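Query structure, 99 tokens:
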């Protein structure tokens, strides 16, 4: 079974070609190429909690520091954490790779 990326799990429609791109724009997670492969994801699809400007809960989220609390409660974050176990890329590692 393949691991889902955030836009597949959340069904937000903000991936390139997604149903809600016209309304809300493309989310930065699926186009953050520097995060490709982290946590077995495509681009930033399994590192979204460390990517500024993602869209959750009906609104654009801010910087990593501003959104971290919300992300730690997110079902997708918890799933990724469970699936990756000890191999989960730390937020520090993700941030250093994407900046």
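Result returned for the query:
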């Amino acid at each position: 079974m393949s691991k889902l990326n955030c836009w597949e799990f959340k069904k937000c429609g903000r991936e390139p070609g997604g149903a809600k791109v016209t309304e809300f724009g493309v989310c930065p997670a699926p186009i953050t190429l520097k995060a490709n492969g982290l946590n077995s994801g495509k681009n930033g699809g399994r590192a979204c909690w460390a990517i500024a400007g993602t869209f959750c809960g009906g609104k654009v989220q801010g910087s990593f520091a501003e959104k971290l609390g919300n992300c730690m409660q997110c079902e997708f974050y918890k799933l990724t954490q469970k699936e990756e176990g000890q191999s989960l890329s730390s937020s520090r590692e993700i941030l250093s790779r994407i900046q």
